Amino acid sequence: MSADTPPATPTDVGEILVTSAQLQERVTELGAAITAEYEGQAPLLVGVLKGAFMFMSDLARAIDLPVEFDFMAVSSYGSATRSSGVVRIVKDLDLDLSGRHVILVEDIVDSGLTLSYLRKNLLARNPASLEVCALLVRETADLAALDLRHVGFTISGEFVLGYGLDVAERYRNLPYIAVYTGAVED
Ligand code: IMP
Ligand code: MG
Predict the structure, then answer these.
(1) Does the CB atom of residue 109 touch ligand 1 within 6 A?
(2) CATH topology for 20-77+84-173?
(3) Closest ligand 1 atom to the C-alpha of 158?
């Protein structure tokens, strides 16, 4: 650890909302549902970096189909704990989406602004189909408008971390989802 690296702050990690066992059970169910829906096809999983990496990795192992992978990285302008809705593509896809059955894999849908942007952007590339599989969605999100095909868990307003989700790049490696109890900058 370098001298200017602040020590980890254990007080940032509050109540565990979704345990590792609950995550694995739900991801297995989602994988089985996707396997049934896309029978005879080779869907393309598009993961949104970085938050979706752990979910996508477990989800892919729960899908019994010849899936292919691609990744996109987006950055939304805003503070560490609030997205502004202005989205910039930091890393674009490598593969051509035309004629593909695309499943967009997201970590969390909060306001839905990031997702709306991504949906428009991906639909413009003429996929055969585009569905969204989000691990978490806020109960305040407009589910009908967002048209999410699969959702892992619905959570309330608290900022959460773990299982891919970060606070200023930390805590992505926690195997569970917990409430962030540190200071919220804005
Ligand atoms: P939206 O555009 O408001 O839906 O924000 C979506 C993005 O904000 C997610 O992909 C996350 O990167 C980030 N985000 C929103 N809520 C949380 C949270 O509770 N913990 C960590 N990241 C979050
Ligand atoms: Mg983030």
Answers:
(1) yes
(2) Rossmann fold (3.40.50)
(3) 19
